[in-house]
């Protein structure tokens, strides 16, 4: 019921029209794994996929060699060739364009394509021959890109890994040697591949940081369920070296494709992240200075990067990351040449997830057109409209996912009033502050009326509430011990109260929280 209510509230399509299903079934019936006509045969290469343990569609696979003579890295990024099964203007294409993106809700996925396409025909399943668009990228030993080649290809993934498996293999190999990481399911060749991938990824990551890429620590929420499918807890998703490997390789492929299309003079859907407003950067600078960071008068990306790096070892890390997040603009899809600020990339697009993002599919089609004819085209006015639509659909999907997670967590806490949590202050207003639990990813309000030990005034520039008499301060990023005191699932509101020994002894009178204004959702940037 919770899931259906969110689907209806956001107008999410949860069923495919019959003509779309018929076209998908026809594509599946026509597909033959032994038909590699017009494709480069990569089926004999050592290719793997690395995805979450519960993933059902696999749209990217990788392979990596080292040239024995030049010592150059030879990276192959293979992406599911969805465009082969989805001709422009057909029923599948129209429905995918309308949806714009797959929607990943807790315990349910609303795919952009029917499952016969997304989870079978186009999914890069272990041991199955699958069609791909391949980017072959050559790097020097220091990670500088030298050559790029593109192919309509076919692969047969040797092994499907999940992130936890890769992390465990790399940890064992690091501590005890590569031979100790070999198991019945993972041979020496696969272990050696994973170690090569880790080494190149760390080189590429270092180069990105050197050019000023920003890395905000904003982990995703993962719900936990009992045997009946009810929420039994939650945690933040782990982002370790296994995730970084895939992230770096996908970024490299996205950038290589974008630069290739830009070099052809073609209008295409870029992933654009505009530079932040100077006034917001100045506000962030003042905030960071208030926390004791040394910040120059002029704030550039390297200044921001240095502050983020310094905050990693400090208790105010969350304050810094949240404040910077709010200073940045949203990333969008557009043919405009604005670059990607957070990635420090002048030319960037999304190419690596055509199963779940329509902009990636448009890029695949243009690349396929070039491979076939040596030319590619793109109508800028049409791409502007499409970019706005896809950006809107992406925001809708993100909002729906966050809202359903919130509903499920509130339903869980409704039966656990009085639970004590340690929260990090994520927002401060004149009527109170919001806190997000560290051990349980849910956010609630501590209304200023419940802070009865003093009269608190709001300092907007410092993102803080400060007591006039006691000087006690609640500031963005601070850790505070709170209790869950009220849950309203229908209104999607959660109220905390600061835990106070004097209150527990009954020495401080607690008034019910005042009605509060609606909370604006924070905008996030990729």
What do you see in this structure?
Strands 1-8-7-4-3 form a 5-stranded mixed β-sheet. Helix 6 crosses helix 7. The chain has helices spanning 2-9, 18-30, 91-99, 115-121, 163-176, 188-210, 241-263, 278-290, 301-311, 317-327, 358-373, 380-414, 501-504; strands at residues 40-41, 48-51, 60-66, 73-80, 103-105, 108-110, 129-139, 145-156, 159-162, 221-225, 231-236, 270-272, 332-334, 420-429, 432-437, 443-447, 456-459, 464-467, 473-475, 479-488, 493-498. It has 526 residues and is of the alpha+beta class.
Radius of gyration: 25 Å
| Overall SS class | alpha+beta
What does the main sheet amount to?
Answer: 5 strands, mixed
Tell me roughly what share of residues is in helical segments.
25-40%
Task: Spell out the blueprint of helices and strands.
Layout (H helix, E strand, L loop, with lengths): L1 H8 L8 H13 L9 E2 L6 E4 L8 E7 L6 E8 L10 H9 L3 E3 L2 E3 L4 H7 L7 E11 L5 E12 L2 E4 H14 L11 H23 L10 E5 L5 E6 L4 H23 L6 E3 L5 H13 L10 H11 L5 H11 L4 E3 L23 H16 L6 H35 L5 E10 L2 E6 L5 E5 L8 E4 L4 E4 L5 E3 L3 E10 L4 E6 L2 H4 L22
Parallel strand pairs: 1-8, 2-9, 16-21
Antiparallel strand pairs: 3-4, 4-7, 5-6, 7-8, 10-11, 12-13, 14-15, 14-20, 15-16, 17-18, 18-19, 20-21
